[in-house]
Amino acid sequence: MRLSAPRITPLNEKDCSAETRESLGKAADSGRVYNIFRTVARHPKLLKRWLPFANHVLVKSALPARDHEILTLRTGWLCRSEYEFAQHVVIGRRAGLIDADIQRIVDGPDAPGWDPFEATLARAADELRRDAFVSEPTWKTLAARYSNEQLMDTVFTVGEYNLVSMALNSLGVQLDPGLEGFSRWRG
What we know:
2 domains; AhpD-like; globular; single chain; 64% helix
């Protein structure tokens, strides 16, 4: 973690307003609200407006789950966002990624063993992070398989997780219990 303590303390669940509980929805009802949401809950208006977009990118995107997680994990790694990366290691495994896949994501698009299309996804994340632009060769490879909606979701996924990574790093959001950070991955 870049910071050993939060700069903005996550809101204690018992202190959530009715509006904040409504914004958090099912997560608040289950009694398990992750530190990212409890931190953003310190700004209820932001939480209420950010969650629909975050929900689209995470759950309603047109991208296949595995592709989404390659983009997300690569972005989290590039941003050095340990929280983002750790959360999405768990989600990525549910989407079918194995440890060798995750290590390739860490190592980058030129690492050996990639499926060519998945390497292109990692390359798109690198280009967007570095240049705020997907190069023509990368775009053509993506466009050969993806619909316009999927192409847009590719860009918005990397953008969303870049934004979230900046917030997580700067606000000092700490790992939730049970998450493993960067220490297990070489890079």
